[in-house]
Specification:
alpha/beta; about 210 residues; 5-stranded parallel beta sheet; Rossmann fold; single chain; elongated; about 15% strand; 2 domains
Length: about 210
């Protein structure tokens, strides 16, 4: 069965990662862009995790010890990425009993959520999943979609988001609003991901004038 792609705000959510190796390092790297508070518990840590801790200040905590059940009292979601399959399964069982979302790295049947292949450009996020059946296909599609996204699209999305209230304030008809936003995107792509407020105001006036003719 395919997975439904929920997009969740992770800012300041509490994440527990059990395991301090390469796998956990990669999960932290992916999650960092979404600003959760991450605690990694492991007897020892990959050197890159130590570097990330320095770069990321207070949002990444490393606790050099074994996992204990009391670690599950606080987190909003958990990632089990140790080299001990029995421990990963135990963590999964505990999380499921407590209704805590759990990802066991590379063991789909022990997961209540999975990590998709991600493309991120500021507020634009594209997520690709094959339901855990073929990470190779997910990576292939990720590379293809990444090529298809125009340069500066994340910047353009941010700019157009700032003009939404302006368009709503000046334009009542949804059909004209839709036309305006479509034109903004097309012109913004042509201009390398830039569409100024002055251009937005001029476009609104022009589209309203065209409608009144």
């Amino acid at each position: 069965m395919a997975y439904f792609p929920f997009f969740v705000d992770l800012e300041d959510k509490k994440c527990l990662i059990v395991g301090g190796g390469t796998v956990s390092y990669r999960k932290v790297e992916v999650l960092m862009d979404y600003c959760p508070q991450i605690t990694v518990v492991a007897p020892k840590f990959h050197p890159e995790l130590r570097k990330l801790q320095k770069e990321w200040r207070g949002n990444l905590k490393l606790e050099e010890r074994e996992f204990k059940e009391s670690d599950l009292e606080d987190p909003d979601f958990v990632v089990a990425g140790t080299s001990d399959e029995a421990l990963n399964k135990h963590i999964s069982d505990l999380c499921r009993a407590r209704k805590i979302p759990i990802n066991v790295v590379d063991v789909q049947e022990e997961c209540s959520f999975i990590f998709p292949a991600l493309i991120k450009d500021k507020h634009i996020t594209v997520a690709i999943s094959t339901g855990g059946h073929s990470p190779t296909i997910a990576k292939y599609l990720k590379d293809k979609f990444k090529e298809a996204i125009p340069d500066g699209f994340g910047d353009l999305a941010e700019q157009l988001g700032a003009y939404r209230d302006l368009v709503k304030e000046k334009v009542d008809l949804i059909s004209i609003r839709t036309d305006i936003f479509k034109t903004m995107v097309e012109q913004g792509i042509q201009q390398g991901g830039i569409f100024t407020r002055e251009q937005a105001e001029e476009l609104i006036e022009r589209k309203l004038a065209e409608h009144e003719r």
